[in-house]
């Protein structure tokens, strides 16, 4: 039984269907039947979502043909930074290949993935089921089902919590007598504000991304949606959080490090009001470190570990964790799976390691970030990564290596091979943060 029909829950259900005769996914929301629709349980769908190449690869492996279905419905499969005008903290990236990225409205993505999962007759996805707690076996050492609001409890041999960032697993475990998990948290107080536009003319690139940096902690992205609409998502830390009102939303885009986004949307017609989002802290609930763990329970996706979304990793990590679970279950008979949950929890959450390192070390560049202070290794990593990024702006080989890691397709060690280190060192004189990077000509 999988709790939550977000990306983590759906891909996990697909993996479990190879091991159990029947998998049931429960979601608190009524799930759309005929096409993409907003769901209150996934409020982040109002904001730009990108799926990096590693996430695309795993989704395709688990649900073959989904990428083509998505692009057929209007999602954009792009090469970053070639197809995206991208201002890094140092400078503009050259339009060279780097990593594949899928850009789709989050509602479209969820609906299509859910539809693909539902084609598997072993999986049932049920909406309108609000889970309120876990049921324990008579020994108290195993989870044997869930309780629901306004419905009778349901039994299951394995329960997977994929209820996202609002997961109540710590309280549910406490009710069974388990201690709270250790939590590591870094909060750079990043705020989001997004709105959908109709643009009078395509902006000349397939999308754009303007990153902030410590001396100018404001940024934004403009990405295409299906049906020719565009989604502008603005971000800023602390007092720089983007406004959720008119005309301040547009005014904010004039204060970014480049006028590219302002120029792209200023003559556009806003189709929605701006919507904000503030709970963007990185938070790792270390269930994998708990001394005692019940049989028959796993916690996956944002429910276990969530990231500052500005690095675009949550969905890709949800996919790689499902892949890790798939590998860990290979050869394990279904009857033994509940008893192996402690080890499985460790294996699946390890998929979050690299994204966690990227998000927290980048957030720690901002002096106001709350959380354990950076150690020496993190500070060295930050300095090296500033150089990598400055070099990657102009050197296609470095750009490719950088995007390979950012997309979670290649391990970070790829940035430390002797060849790459030499390339980085050869660019040591490049400024890591020029004052006013010139705005490059669009080359659609
Ligand atoms: C503003 C923002 C922007 C983001 N941008 C990106 C991006 O560009 N790229 C990227 O990869 N990731 C991004 N993310 C992260 C991404 O949204 C998540 O990591 C991803 O959705 C995986 O989450 P999940 O499946 O664990 O949870 P969710 O997608 O949040 O799904 C949780 C599900 O559980 C259901 N649920 C909750 N409580 C209950 C309950 N009690 N009973 C039953 N069902 C319940 C909800 O209805 C929902 O369907 C972003 C996040 C935010 C907040």
TrEMBL record:
Residues 2-330 form the FAD-binding domain. It comes from the Bacteria. Pfam families: FAD_binding_3 (PF01494). GO terms for molecular function: FAD binding. Signal peptide: none annotated. This is FAD-binding domain-containing protein. It comes from Streptomyces katrae.
